[in-house]
Specification:
Layout lengths: L3 H12 L3 H15 L5 H13 L1 H19 L8 H15 L1
Helix pairs in contact: 2-3, 2-4, 3-4
Length: about 100
């Protein structure tokens, strides 16, 4: 659901070669949202978002989605034996 402003901005970005930075930001998006980006990556990402409306919107959507998902998940304690059985089966299938 993109606005006319976003569509116009995307056209302008493609005319100026801005797409390369957008591709890099798209690759960094998950790492930034999860807090796993380096300081250098975070600086690049933040600087780009200040100038790029489509990337800013993508970042906001990703943060919203993560908040919705994590807000509805509950951590449950399971019996030690069950956890060990699951780990054993996972290891057996990955080897």
């Amino acid at each position: 659901m993109e606005t006319k402003f976003t569509e116009a901005y995307e056209q302008q970005a493609s005319d100026t070669g801005h797409e390369t930075d957008c591709s890099k930001v798209a690759q960094l998006l998950d790492a930034v949202v999860d807090g796993e980006a380096t300081a250098e990556e975070q600086t690049f990402f933040t600087g780009h978002l200040e100038d790029c409306v489509p990337c800013f919107e993508s970042h906001q959507k990703q943060k919203l989605l993560k908040g919705l998902v994590s807000g509805n998940l509950k951590r449950m304690l399971v019996p030690e034996r069950l956890a060990l059985a699951i780990k054993t089966k996972i290891q057996a299938t990955t080897v």
